Amino acid sequence: MSSLIRRRTFLKTGLAAGAAVGFGVRAHAAHTPLNPVWGKHKAVITFPPKEETFTELKAAGFNGVEVNLWHPKEGMTTLDEAAKVRELAAKMDMRVHTVLRGWAEFNSPDPDKVKTDKEFTIHTLQAAQAYGADAILLVGGRLDGDKFAMPEPDRWKVKFDPKNGHLLQVADGDNSAYKDYMQAHDHAYDSFIRHISDLIPVAEETGVVVGVENVWNNLFIGPDHFGHMIDAFKSPWVRAYFDCGNQVKYRIPPEQWIRTLGKRIVKLHIKDYKLDVPKEQEWPSLREGSVNWPNVAKALIEIGYDGWFTIEGPCGEGRAECSRRLDLILAGM
Fold it and tell me: H or E segment at 291?
């Protein structure tokens, strides 16, 4: 998820599919997933789905959905409504596997805002349980990029104190220009640990993992720092919801993130990003950007990932084409 791509446009029309490229691990047949489980874990993001939504998605080859409760069209879902969707999904051999809670502001200076966001997140965990989901997607907060001097995307060299996660540098050389940013980042780190920790008892009670996503929030630019933050909770109920496209602009490929995060990853967003193009062209259709999908699939095999693959962002013309492109990725192509 990024601040530049709206969740409502997750199936925006893209261009024609690019040519498939293998990486040396051959599928037994065209579009056969490298891990058989992957083919049963294909999803898209939707608002709370109706029967026709499930019908359309199943016909296109999807197995489930991630329900968007960040900007609900008809108000926040009640637990009864979520339970009915769960029953409908089960009847159609589909599943709500995740609930998208979205962006909170746990590093806000306003305690009332923090309290409201925490209450909303707790309700999202409870709704996820009612949906039959086993995780929520959470972004803990952000730093305003217009307020702080930060390195250019290809200049980041993050080092941090392993004792507390605080930044030691964000670029090679003199970091004095980034002092205010580093202090704000340290505050955000501490705020995330404090407030997300408060959610752990609810996560355990509901059986729903808090999946913290890597996004364009000017925080946790590298996988080592992000992984350190996840580890700081010392709980299996806080893990990483990894988005394959979100950190590409920092020149750290997603396969490196995947290998670093390893078993911390609970869910995946499948999204492309294109380097060195105008901003309006940064988010191309799936398999038409700078993500090396064969390398991503190889890394996922290495870490033993057997979770869900949820498409976010442009992916082609129509549900069937989006499903086809995802099949190619799952086949290591």
Answer: none
Rounded Cα distance, 185 and 167, in Å: 8
Assign residue 157 a region (left: φ > 0; alpha: ψ between -120 and 50; beta: otherwise). Answer: beta
DSSP codes of every residue in 144-172: -TTTS----GGG---EE-TTT--EEESSS
Statement: the pTM of the whole predicted model exceeds 0.85: yes
Q: Of 155, 151, 209, 233, whose CA–CA distance to 185 is shortest?
A: 151
Distance CA 167, CA 165 (A): 7
Give me 146's structure tokens.
């217009």
Helix (H) or strand (E) holding 15: none
Residue 273 near residue 245 (C-beta atoms within 8 A): yes
> pLDDT tens digits for 20-30?
333 333 333 45
Radius of gyration of the chain (CA): 19
Contact 181, 143 (CB under 8 A): yes
Confidence of residue 73 (pLDDT cuts 50, 70, 90): low
173: left (phi over 0), alpha (psi -120 to 50) or beta: left
**Quick count: other Cβ atoms within 10 Å of Cβ 194?**
12
Beta strands at 95-103 and 135-139: parallel, antiparallel or unpaired: parallel
Chain centroid offset of residue 294 CA: 19
Query: Residue with structure tokens 């009612």?
Result: 130
How many residues in the chain?
Answer: 333
Pull the structure tokens for residue 46: 């939707």
CB 89, CB 54: distance < 8 Å: yes
| Token reading at 53 | 């939504």
SS3 181: helix
CA angle, residues 250, 226, 245, in degrees to nearest 5 = 40
Domains of the chain (ranges; CATH) run 7-330 (3.20.20.150)
